[in-house]
Amino acid sequence: MARLQIKNLEKTYANTFKAVHGINLDVEDGEFMVLVGPSGCAKSTTLRMIAGLESISGGEVVIGEKVVNRLQPGQRGIAMVQHPKPKHSAPAPCPRPPTQKRP
């Protein structure tokens, strides 16, 4: 593994919608990182830019000591895991009402 640095990372789409607004992040070698947030907050876009699957509008992605903004995904030496949201994210209803103790 290697250190990951994100410096002022930005993503602006052709329609001028700015999805990522200058993210800064430093993940040391051996650390585990998780991005958590509500739907539409650019978690996947950020991960895709780190992996090289999405173009970067501004800022830098540094892996180890190398700026990888212009490297193809296979040249970056990293992988991305994305866990899909469960179809039924609400808790299942209780199959029977809880019993109450009688006084």
Outline the structure in words.
The chain is mainly β and 103 residues long. The chain has a domain at 4-75: Rossmann fold, CATH 3.40.50.300. The protein has one helix spanning 43-51; strands at 4-12, 18-27, 58-63, 66-67. A four-stranded antiparallel sheet has the order 2-1-3-4. It starts with a strand and ends in a 36-residue tail after the last strand. The model has no long low-confidence stretch (mean pLDDT 85).
Features:
mainly beta, Rossmann fold, four-stranded antiparallel beta sheet, 1 helix
Give the amount of beta strand, in percent.
25-35%
Whole-number radius of gyration? 20 Å
Order of helices and strands: EEHEE
Top-tier CATH class of the domain at 4-75: Alpha Beta
In round numbers, the mean pLDDT is 85
Please give the number of β-strands: 4
CATH architecture of the domain at 4-75: 3-Layer(aba) Sandwich
Read across the widest sheet, the strand sequence of neighbours is 2-1-3-4
Shape type: globular
Kindly identify the CATH topology of the domain at 4-75. Answer: Rossmann fold
CATH superfamily of the domain at 4-75: P-loop containing nucleotide triphosphate hydrolases
Largest sheet: 4 strands, antiparallel
Low-confidence stretches: none
Report helical residue fraction: under 10%
- Oligomerization category of the chains in this entry: single chain
Structural class call reads mainly beta
Distance between the termini: 62 Å
By DSSP (H or I, 4+ residues per run), the number of helices equals: 1
Please outline what is shown here:
This protein has 103 residues and is mainly beta. It has one helix spanning 43-51; strands at 4-12, 18-27, 58-63, 66-67.
